[in-house]
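Run log, item B.
One chain of 166 residues. Sequence copied directly from the ordering sheet:
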Amino acid sequence: MVGAALVQPLEEATATRQAVLDAIPARPWVHFACHGDQNPREPSASHLALHDADLTVLDLVKAGVLDGDLAFLSACETAQGDIALTDEAIHLAAAFHLAGYRHVIGTLWSLNDASAAKVAADVYGQLTGDSGTEPAVALHLAVTRLRALPSFSSPLAWAPYVHIGA
Protein backbone atom coordinates (compact mmCIF):
# COMPACT_ATOMS: atom_id res chain seq x y z
CA MET A 1 0.00 0.00 0.00
CA VAL A 2 1.26 3.45 -0.86
CA GLY A 3 1.58 5.44 2.34
CA ALA A 4 0.75 9.10 2.71
CA ALA A 5 4.41 9.84 3.45
CA LEU A 6 5.31 8.66 -0.04
CA VAL A 7 2.87 11.00 -1.77
CA GLN A 8 4.15 14.41 -2.78
CA PRO A 9 1.30 16.28 -4.44
CA LEU A 10 2.24 19.16 -6.68
CA GLU A 11 -0.91 21.13 -7.38
CA GLU A 12 -1.77 24.55 -8.72
CA ALA A 13 1.13 26.97 -8.08
CA THR A 14 3.43 24.21 -6.74
CA ALA A 15 3.17 22.25 -10.01
CA THR A 16 5.92 24.17 -11.74
CA ARG A 17 8.12 22.72 -14.44
CA GLN A 18 11.20 22.81 -12.21
CA ALA A 19 9.43 21.32 -9.18
CA VAL A 20 8.16 18.44 -11.31
CA LEU A 21 11.58 17.85 -12.89
CA ASP A 22 13.14 17.85 -9.40
CA ALA A 23 10.55 15.41 -8.03
CA ILE A 24 10.45 12.88 -10.89
CA PRO A 25 13.81 11.13 -10.24
CA ALA A 26 12.92 10.47 -6.60
CA ARG A 27 9.48 8.97 -7.24
CA PRO A 28 8.92 5.42 -8.48
CA TRP A 29 5.29 6.36 -9.32
CA VAL A 30 4.16 9.62 -10.88
CA HIS A 31 0.64 10.68 -11.81
CA PHE A 32 -0.24 13.61 -14.02
CA ALA A 33 -3.81 14.92 -14.19
CA CYS A 34 -3.45 17.96 -16.40
CA HIS A 35 -3.70 19.04 -20.00
CA GLY A 36 -1.56 17.23 -22.53
CA ASP A 37 -0.87 18.12 -26.15
CA GLN A 38 0.72 16.16 -28.98
CA ASN A 39 2.57 18.43 -31.41
CA PRO A 40 2.58 16.67 -34.80
CA ARG A 41 4.87 19.28 -36.41
CA GLU A 42 7.49 18.98 -33.66
CA PRO A 43 6.89 15.78 -31.63
CA SER A 44 9.67 16.51 -29.13
CA ALA A 45 7.72 19.65 -28.16
CA SER A 46 4.64 17.61 -27.20
CA HIS A 47 3.95 18.47 -23.60
CA LEU A 48 2.09 18.35 -20.33
CA ALA A 49 0.82 21.80 -19.33
CA LEU A 50 2.06 22.70 -15.86
CA HIS A 51 1.40 25.81 -13.77
CA ASP A 52 4.22 27.96 -15.15
CA ALA A 53 5.53 26.21 -18.25
CA ASP A 54 5.21 23.10 -20.37
CA LEU A 55 6.96 19.83 -19.55
CA THR A 56 8.04 18.54 -22.96
CA VAL A 57 9.06 15.17 -24.37
CA LEU A 58 12.60 16.53 -24.62
CA ASP A 59 12.56 17.56 -20.93
CA LEU A 60 11.53 14.05 -19.93
CA VAL A 61 14.17 12.32 -21.99
CA LYS A 62 16.82 14.57 -20.42
CA ALA A 63 15.46 13.90 -16.89
CA GLY A 64 17.03 10.45 -16.89
CA VAL A 65 14.90 8.62 -14.33
CA LEU A 66 16.77 5.45 -13.53
CA ASP A 67 14.36 3.46 -11.41
CA GLY A 68 10.79 4.47 -12.20
CA ASP A 69 8.00 1.94 -11.96
CA LEU A 70 4.74 3.63 -13.04
CA ALA A 71 3.93 6.86 -14.85
CA PHE A 72 0.16 7.39 -15.11
CA LEU A 73 -0.55 10.14 -17.63
CA SER A 74 -4.18 11.05 -17.08
CA ALA A 75 -4.01 13.78 -19.70
CA CYS A 76 -5.12 14.11 -23.30
CA GLU A 77 -3.08 12.75 -26.21
CA THR A 78 -0.14 11.43 -24.16
CA ALA A 79 0.35 8.32 -26.33
CA GLN A 80 -0.82 9.77 -29.62
CA GLY A 81 1.52 9.52 -32.55
CA ASP A 82 1.18 11.22 -35.90
CA ILE A 83 0.02 9.88 -39.24
CA ALA A 84 3.03 11.47 -40.93
CA LEU A 85 5.40 9.63 -38.55
CA THR A 86 3.81 6.18 -38.43
CA ASP A 87 7.20 4.49 -37.98
CA GLU A 88 8.17 6.68 -35.03
CA ALA A 89 6.76 6.74 -31.50
CA ILE A 90 7.60 10.21 -30.28
CA HIS A 91 5.06 11.10 -27.64
CA LEU A 92 4.86 11.71 -23.89
CA ALA A 93 4.20 8.08 -22.92
CA ALA A 94 7.23 6.91 -24.91
CA ALA A 95 9.33 9.66 -23.31
CA PHE A 96 8.42 8.48 -19.79
CA HIS A 97 9.25 4.92 -20.82
CA LEU A 98 12.57 6.02 -22.31
CA ALA A 99 13.33 8.03 -19.17
CA GLY A 100 13.14 4.83 -17.13
CA TYR A 101 9.53 4.15 -16.13
CA ARG A 102 8.84 0.45 -16.54
CA HIS A 103 5.06 0.92 -16.92
CA VAL A 104 3.37 3.91 -18.54
CA ILE A 105 -0.37 4.46 -18.85
CA GLY A 106 -1.22 7.02 -21.50
CA THR A 107 -4.04 8.08 -23.78
CA LEU A 108 -4.59 8.19 -27.53
CA TRP A 109 -6.96 11.16 -27.60
CA SER A 110 -8.83 13.66 -25.43
CA LEU A 111 -10.27 12.38 -22.17
CA ASN A 112 -13.57 12.79 -20.40
CA ASP A 113 -12.76 14.01 -16.85
CA ALA A 114 -15.31 11.70 -15.21
CA SER A 115 -14.03 8.58 -16.97
CA ALA A 116 -10.41 9.58 -16.27
CA ALA A 117 -11.14 9.84 -12.55
CA LYS A 118 -12.92 6.46 -12.51
CA VAL A 119 -10.12 4.69 -14.39
CA ALA A 120 -7.42 6.20 -12.15
CA ALA A 121 -9.27 5.30 -8.94
CA ASP A 122 -9.85 1.74 -10.16
CA VAL A 123 -6.25 1.24 -11.31
CA TYR A 124 -4.77 2.56 -8.06
CA GLY A 125 -7.27 0.55 -6.01
CA GLN A 126 -5.97 -2.60 -7.65
CA LEU A 127 -2.29 -1.64 -7.50
CA THR A 128 -2.36 -0.74 -3.82
CA GLY A 129 -4.46 -3.72 -2.75
CA ASP A 130 -3.26 -7.17 -1.79
CA SER A 131 -3.84 -8.74 -5.20
CA GLY A 132 -0.38 -8.01 -6.64
CA THR A 133 -1.99 -6.89 -9.90
CA GLU A 134 0.40 -5.59 -12.55
CA PRO A 135 -0.36 -2.15 -14.08
CA ALA A 136 -1.30 -3.51 -17.52
CA VAL A 137 -3.81 -5.91 -15.97
CA ALA A 138 -5.12 -3.22 -13.61
CA LEU A 139 -5.72 -0.91 -16.58
CA HIS A 140 -7.46 -3.66 -18.54
CA LEU A 141 -9.77 -4.45 -15.62
CA ALA A 142 -10.50 -0.76 -14.98
CA VAL A 143 -11.38 -0.11 -18.63
CA THR A 144 -13.52 -3.24 -18.77
CA ARG A 145 -15.49 -2.08 -15.72
CA LEU A 146 -15.84 1.44 -17.09
CA ARG A 147 -17.08 0.09 -20.42
CA ALA A 148 -19.82 -1.86 -18.62
CA LEU A 149 -21.30 1.32 -17.11
CA PRO A 150 -24.15 2.69 -19.24
CA SER A 151 -22.99 6.29 -18.96
CA PHE A 152 -19.50 5.36 -20.25
CA SER A 153 -20.40 2.84 -22.96
CA SER A 154 -19.13 5.04 -25.81
CA PRO A 155 -15.65 4.00 -26.98
CA LEU A 156 -14.64 7.66 -26.71
CA ALA A 157 -14.86 7.26 -22.91
CA TRP A 158 -13.05 3.95 -22.41
CA ALA A 159 -10.90 3.24 -25.48
CA PRO A 160 -8.16 5.93 -25.31
CA TYR A 161 -6.17 4.21 -22.54
CA VAL A 162 -3.00 2.29 -23.39
CA HIS A 163 -0.24 0.64 -21.39
CA ILE A 164 3.36 0.80 -22.55
CA GLY A 165 6.00 -1.32 -20.89
CA ALA A 166 6.73 -4.71 -19.53
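Observations after the first pass:
- The CA atoms of residues 69 and 102 lie 5 Å apart.
- Helices lie at 17-23, 57-63, 92-99, 113-127, 135-148, 155-158.
Flagged for discussion on Thursday.
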